[in-house]
TrEMBL record:
PROSITE patterns assigned: PROKAR_LIPOPROTEIN
Signal peptide: 1-26
Organism: Pseudarthrobacter quantipunctorum
InterPro entries: Solute-binding_3/MltF_N
The Solute-binding protein family 3/N-terminal domain, residue ranges: 64-165
Pfam families named in the record: SBP_bac_3
Name of the molecule in the record: ABC transporter substrate-binding protein
Protein keywords: Signal
Top-level taxon in the UniProt lineage: Bacteria
Gene3D superfamilies, per the entry: Periplasmic binding protein-like II
Length: 167
């Protein structure tokens, strides 16, 4: 009988803790989704064939017309869904992954696959597309997001899976 009382007390304590947590799962510790929705989506773009093409005019920052390709179009549609403007930043994968890690970007694209070495710097979406290279190797494509920004990641994953289902 005493054991049941202890178990009931433990269960009650767990329920109280969980009810105090609210329903904000998944969460973004840095508020990425909240900041982007109706605001600005800061996107790092690394050139990579048909995935990302950058045609910079050389005058100041990049516009949405300067960044083209399969992933760029996905990001433009995702930003529109969130009511966000896009601030584009061009660079190498290494520079962009480091900028993402330190909070300067919300998303990195560049034809990356699920074997990207940047998983120590970033979270990845679920693979949303596949391609084969010239050697016949299969690549499962992902995008990079800030580590721990799970609400933003979930929103992006849902969007990418919807697009994949429509194809």
């Amino acid at each position: 009988m005493r054991r049941r009382g202890m178990m009931a007390g433990l269960l009650l304590a767990v329920l109280m803790v969980l009810s105090g947590c609210g329903s904000s799962f998944p969460a973004d510790p840095e508020g990425t989704l909240e900041n982007v929705r109706g605001g600005t989506l800061r996107v790092g773009a690394s050139m990579n064939g048909d995935w990302v093409r950058i045609n910079a005019s050389g005058s100041g920052g990049l516009s949405s017309n300067d960044v083209q390709g399969t992933e760029a179009e996905l990001v433009k549609d995702f930003a529109a869904r969130l009511g966000a403007e896009i601030e584009w930043v061009a660079g190498t994968e290494q520079v962009l992954a480091d900028e993402l890690k330190h909070g300067g970007l919300d998303l990195v694209i560049g034809g990356l696959d699920d074997k990207t070495p940047w998983v120590t710097h970033a979270g990845t979406t679920r693979p949303y597309a596949e391609s084969r290279d010239g050697r016949g190797s299969l690549h499962k494509h992902v995008m990079l997001v800030p580590l721990g920004e799970n609400a933003f990641l979930l929103e992006l994953d849902k969007y990418l899976m919807e697009v994949k289902a429509e194809q």
